[in-house]
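Narrative of activities, Objective 1.

The group set out to show that a structural description can be obtained from nothing but a protein's sequence at a throughput compatible with the screening campaign. Below is one input-output pair from the validation batch, recorded exactly as produced.
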Amino acid sequence: MSKLKNYLYFQLSSSFFQIFFVLFAIASIIYLVRIASLTSIIQMTGVELFMLYLYATPNIIFYTLPIVFFVSLAITISRLSSEYETIVITSFGLNPYRIIKIFFPITLIVSITLLIISLGLVPKAKDLSRVFIEKKKNEAKLNIQASQNGQKFGNWLVYIQGKKDEVFYDVTMFKKDQNSKEFITSDKADSISDNSEFLFTLYNGKAFIIKDAIDQINFEKLTLLNSNSQKAIQDTFTNPIDYWSNMKENEKLKKDFALFALISIFPIISMFLVIYIGYFNPRYGKNNASLFSAVSITIFIVSIVLLNKYIPIASIIIIPLVWIIVSYVLLRKYVLGRY
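Output recorded for this entry:
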């Protein structure tokens, strides 16, 4: 039995790592492109870009691991069926239930790992990434380029005519509130980072406040503070219990919790389905493991999306219950009756 277990685990690992590395690489490239696009807004070094990628790693692992494990397990069993090995195994008295028992411990470990990653590491990593980006926006030197529109400092739109040695020349700034509009022009400006606050200082200019009338202020020196900085830096993740305890007041947290929980337990609730997909007689049937796996994953994701809109918490019970019952019915009808 131990040799058979080792053999099955070896077959699973060979399929798993081949698929995982490919899918992980594709997902990493997508995230790296998104991270690199931030350099058009803020200045970052290669080390800082790599740090942001590390923050994204839990998210990449969480969304790739359950899919890869499910597909690799189905492919492993179907490969054994294609090579008549499941028939040989069954002839020695090892029925499909025994196969499930062999793979159950490692599947349980995968689901528990996914729960830890999704409920603990993913929100923490997202918060660290958000705070890091906001700090870079607020504290680092502005990546404002000359003669480009749409550049921002806090709530202000900024346009500069020239730039030399981090000094900006012919600066124009505009901000629109509900009740007023503000317009500033100055000969030059520079930026200062002071105690996690980012200051923008303008020299020799005019400020216009437009309400019912137009008020004009002439100034020799005017310092603006990015008021968004402190909120972004202080609103941080503490621990998973405190984070998820706010679900009652936050509908998005409910949906995220249901999504994370359901994706995490997907491997463990799909064991009956995996046996159904993988077990077949190669003389009479075809190896459709990849097709059935793709269809199963699609149905599961669509079910989560539909129920998560209206009953996120209840879906944590409904979807696994229906999924296990349907999987068991398919297993009992098409596999257990023959093996």
